[in-house]
Specification:
globular, single chain, Immunoglobulin-like
Length: 177
């Protein structure tokens, strides 16, 4: 059974505390590609769970074109934080749309993080996690700031539910070598 730890009606992309937590303690660039992450386990073909600090865990999947990620970060004492790292700055006041099983979700970049799209509230984040947990595919679209180029990425959701459960687990151990 899926659990949700974020029940506040906070607009994540407008909340300065979220940006403080994310960029002071673990910038996305170092989370995704930095040497400090420790792979715990891979679920499905592409959902990886990492320990990035003794009190922070990350799960994510690169798109087929890499450098673009769906990320869920679980800092200790805070609910999961969902973001879509698009790899390039997005147009101002634009939206990123995610389609899964005929359901559409909208995420928004902020001025502080123009290359990352955030769920507008906890309900959207929880609905996204629930839909992604059912498997299938997620299609992410947005518009790049430079040249107005259309971005289009596809993610295989097989393994998402197991990775999410592992993210919430308090007993994460590195997989045996």
């Amino acid at each position: 059974m899926l659990q949700f730890y974020s029940t506040r009606k906070t607009k994540f992309w407008k909340n300065p505390l979220i940006f403080f937590i994310l960029f002071l303690f673990f910038p996305v660039a170092s989370v995704v590609g930095g040497p400090s992450k420790q792979l715990i386990k891979t679920y499905g073909k592409e959902w990886h769970v990492y320990k990035i600090h003794e009190d922070r865990v990350l799960m994510g999947a690169p798109s087929k074109k890499s450098k673009h990620y769906i990320l869920l970060v679980k800092p200790q004492g805070v609910g999961c934080i969902l973001s879509l790292a698009m790899g390039v700055p997005l147009q101002k006041r634009s939206e990123v749309e995610v389609t899964m099983a005929k359901k559409k979700f909208r995420f928004y970049p902020s001025a502080a993080t123009p290359d990352i799209a955030w769920a507008p509230d906890a309900q959207t984040q929880e609905a996204f996690i629930l839909a992604a947990s059912k498997g299938g595919k997620a299609v992410v679209t947005g518009i790049a700031e430079k040249g107005g180029r259309r971005l289009h990425y596809t993610y295989d959701l097989k393994g998402f539910a197991q990775a999410y459960e592992a993210l919430l687990s308090k007993n994460l151990k590195k997989k045996p070598s």
